[in-house]
Amino acid sequence: MSLILNEEHPVVRLRAFRAIDDPKTCELFLKGHEQVLTNIGVKKVTSSKNEWMFNPAAFVLIVESLDKERVFGGARIHVAGGSQPLPIEEATGRMDPKIFDLVWQYAQQGTGEICGLWNSREIAGYGVGSIFLTRAAVAISTQIGLKSLFALCAPYTVKMAESVGYMIERSVGNDGTFYYPKLDLLATTMLLKDVDGLERADEENRNAIFSIRQHLNLVRVERLRRKEIEIHYEILLPEMEGWDLQEVIRNYKATRPNHLENRDNVVNVI
User: Fold this and answer.
1) Are the C-beta atoms of residues 190 and 153 closer than 8 Å to each other?
2) Which of 41, 93, 160, 246 holds its CA 20 to 30 A away from the CA of 208?
């Protein structure tokens, strides 16, 4: 029987894994994310397709009950060079093809994207679907070997992204922005250039991310706007023996022409 979430002292697990290693949890992630998108009137976006479940270069962070029966939120990290383009390339490439060259530039050293960030209504307000998942995603990126991270942020998450070291990437779109996932919603292109050092992150978030990196499996009582939540972090990525970032980068170089095969027909609508 699934554990009941205690509103006064909620306790959850934040767990990380490679998508192909846990199909069951990926299904739970997908259903939860689709419900959140439906609730805000978005029926389908490119990054919500389920191809990522079979992408060997996709990693998942899940917020779940301690018995793993209920899912309350999640996020993903896609690495450039996997079996699909980065979600930001799929989402904005037809509006501004410069995104392909931008990703290519950072992919040489290992880049990825934090995407698919969501949380359920029952845990809204505790920071799980924003700062705590983002911190954990940035923290585990060093395990993957990434040097930089992209993100496509809604207006209300731009400041949060900046607080962990991202900056607005103004070289694409309309000074960094696109109408996505629909015409009345604005998304901002963000780039974190130094995953290792986090020089642009504020002190609180930098210290928290470094602490999580040093203790990948730990329990923390996190606080946000007078609310507390107990998070059991389990973000030491399992089954990483077969992971080879350099091979992924080589694959990106080999498959890049396929990503751009229709580029000559792209029209910039910004």
Assistant:
1) yes
2) 246
| Alpha-carbon span 237 to 144, nearest angstrom | 9
Q: What is the pLDDT of residue 232?
A: 96
pLDDT tens digit sequence for 165-218? 999 999 999 999 998 877 778 999 999 999 999 999 999 999 999 999 999 999
Find out whether 61 and 136 touch, Cβ atoms under 8 Å: yes
Stretch (H or E) spanning 15: strand 11-18
User: What is the b/e burial string over 152-174, where b = at least 16 CB atoms within 10 angstroms of the residue's CB?
Assistant: bbeeebbebbbbbbbebbeebbe
Q: Which amino acid appears at position 208 of this protein?
A: A
Separation CA 232–CA 248 (nearest Å): 31
Asked if 51 and 270 count as a contact pair (C-beta separation under 8 A), the reply is no
pLDDT at 111: 98
Query: Of the candidates 74, 76, 79, which has an alpha carbon nearest to the alpha carbon of residue 56?
Result: 79
Helix (H) or strand (E) holding 148: strand 148-153
